[in-house]
Amino acid sequence: MERKKYILIVFLLLIGLGLSAQSKYDNAIYESYVRGDMIGWQQLIKLAERDVASEKPDGFSYKSPLRVSLINYYYGVSGWLISQKENKQVMEYIKKGEALIEKILDHEPDDATFIAYKAAFKGFRIGAGSFKVVYLGVQSLNLAKKAYSNDPMNVRALIEMGNVLYYSPSFAGGDKKKGIEFYEQAVKELENSGSTVNNWQYLSLLSSITNAYCESGQKKNALKAYEKAISAEPHFLWIKEKLYPKILQLRD
Asked: Is residue 217 within a helix (H) or strand (E), and if so which, with residue range?
């Protein structure tokens, strides 16, 4: 099985020959996400890390396209590993992601995208079982607010504002309804910018919205978000297998 997965990964990278390293990996990561192959995702991370290590240093290498994509890959796999209770393994990715983020923020401290990523990785530390729940929660919230304040149309900032509001308890400022509104706004920004094709984050957002509406019993809205996701990617396994059955169980 592992050999077959490796052959598939090599194939996905080979069909990306002629593309930039970033595009090549982004396309392969997308295919892994659609198939629900997070083991393959981790193998792609290893290959991308190798290529990043071989990049020639210059004045802007701290923010090379592949390094930025690698942060996104760490982000995606961290959320999955937390859902699988793989807390020890996820900490390795959290630390790697934070190191890349800090290098960028050292040079560009007001960049909303990476402030928002920093907020997200604080949240991952909570999910990985850190005892500093309150401390990290406040940090994550403040960073998300700062990112949003710096750029209210920034997709990453909108996503993290949504995450913080949706998953925080009400006594800590959580508000599920407002969280969904931020998710919906992030979707609109991606659609308006034409950044939805082969974008795993777009599918992930639609999944989050579908799940949020399922949890609140809003069948019509859940079905609408689901149909948008399937229209964007008909082969998206996770939303078909995990969320669609939940939608069908909701009352009209």
From this structure: none
